[in-house]
Specification:
heterodimer, A: 4-stranded antiparallel beta sheet, B: mainly beta, 6-stranded mixed beta sheet
Chain lengths: ~110, ~120
């Protein structure tokens, strides 16, 4: 059983608010990822990290930012949320090969 | 760049019938290959993976997949579907070596199970 946790699971906020989606893993994995998934659609990589103080943008451009100050923690921040940011955000981690996913954070911006 | 195609957006199958989900990939060499399942409102769970060796891979929940290099395919199968198999299934490809574990996902196939 993978141990990767995302909070909040669901968030409804107004336009212009700053939000942070939390992601933590207890497996000691060096690599962590954020994927964005619109309803019924494929996953797109928006950020990844191969270790502490290492972050890179993924294949899909995103206005969000990430940080990796501790191995187990990989939060995603939106400074000013807009309705176009409404989506599900999935965090994952890996050591070698497969990714282990959290249950996702579903964000709705009104 | 790698890519994954899942030609079937929806599949409806009767409970107890067999299931096959198609996956085709584009990659310059032999990639890492994965199948994940996602229930509504949940994250993704790994069903099985192929790294090397035997091209027929067994996974959890009675699923198996076969890697066919000549067809660039990694189709998922289950001999007898249960109502709990209704979910979205994603095929994914990952690059080997220093590129790390960034996975590229297909568009998914939604499986509906009729009683």
């Amino acid at each position: 059983e993978a141990d990767i946790y995302q909070t909040p699971r669901y968030l409804v906020i107004g336009t212009g608010k700053k939000i942070t989606l939390e992601c933590s893993q207890t497996m000691g994995h060096d690599k962590m990822y954020w994927y964005q998934q619109d309803p019924g659609m494929e996953l797109h990589l928006i950020h990844y990290s191969y270790g502490v103080n290492s972050t890179e943008k993924g294949d899909l451009s995103s206005e969000s930012t990430v940080s990796r100050i501790r191995t187990e923690h990989f939060p995603l921040t939106l400074e000013s949320a807009r309705p176009s940011h409404t989506s599900q955000y999935l965090c994952a981690s890996s050591n070698t090969g497969e990714l282990f996913f959290g249950e996702g954070s579903r964000l709705t911006v009104l | 760049a790698q890519s994954v195609t899942q030609p079937d957006i929806h599949i409806t199958v009767s409970e107890g019938a067999s299931l096959e989900l198609r996956c085709n990939y584009s990659y310059g060499a032999t990639p890492y290959l994965f199948w994940y399942v996602q229930s509504p409102g949940q994250g993704l769970q790994l069903l099985l993976k192929y790294f090397s060796g035997d091209t027929l891979v067994q996974g959890i929940k009675g699923f198996e997949a076969e890697f066919k290099r000549s067809q660039s395919s990694f189709n998922l199968r289950k001999p007898s579907v249960h109502w709990s198999d209704a979910a979205e299934y994603f095929c994914a490809v990952g690059a080997r070596g220093a590129a790390g574990n960034k996975l590229t996902f297909g568009g998914g196939t939604r499986v509906l199970v009729k009683p």
